[in-house]
Amino acid sequence: MKRLSRRVKRHFNMPNRRVAIKSHRAWYWQVVAALILVTLGYALAFWQLTMVGHVLNPSVGMKAVAQPTFKNQELLAKVVFAERQLQVQKAAQENLASELATVQEESIKLKESLAFYQSILEEIPGGDQVRLSQLKVEKGKQSGQYAYDLVLSQQGTHSKPVQGSIQLILHGSKSDGQQQVALPLKSQIKVNFRYYQRLDGSFNVPEDMNAEAIEIGFVASGTKQPAVSQKINLPE
Q: Which InterPro entries does the UniProt record give (predicted)?
């Protein structure tokens, strides 16, 4: 009787079964998820391998970073080298121009010297003659002082030496500017040479005179008038 009642209860009071509800997803979303997982796995593996490579050989990992730096340094070195080459070329051109100017100046002096010696050896009919070949006048160190430099030369047969003196005459005006004067200076320079002689000296202008020029002449022994003379303005 009890068994029968149990069966009836089991028949009418059956326990509720658990039901699992599953959401339905499209198949392509599963493919996308799988691809994402594979990509993440590949990236993680590549990162691990790269880190291992840096640890085992750090220089290999620095090549990609150091390469632009090396290229910049090489370019900078080329620029510096080119600038130095330009500086060297410029200095060489300046030195060459200076040497060329010096050579030209020496060439001019040599030509003048050659012309001077040729004029000395030139034979002139009528006996020996004296020539004032060079004459320069410059300001002295003191006020009213002047220095002169001249060369007397002998042309002809050079049969006998040249003897005489140098005469200096100042040309200008008095300090008031109303009277023109020609003032012979007392300095007497004796001359005794054959072929040529260089002479230099100095003179002072009187304080009461406005000197404008100096006349330098050669007076031969036994004569009063200069055989040769030249007038030159005084430098300001």
A: DUF6776
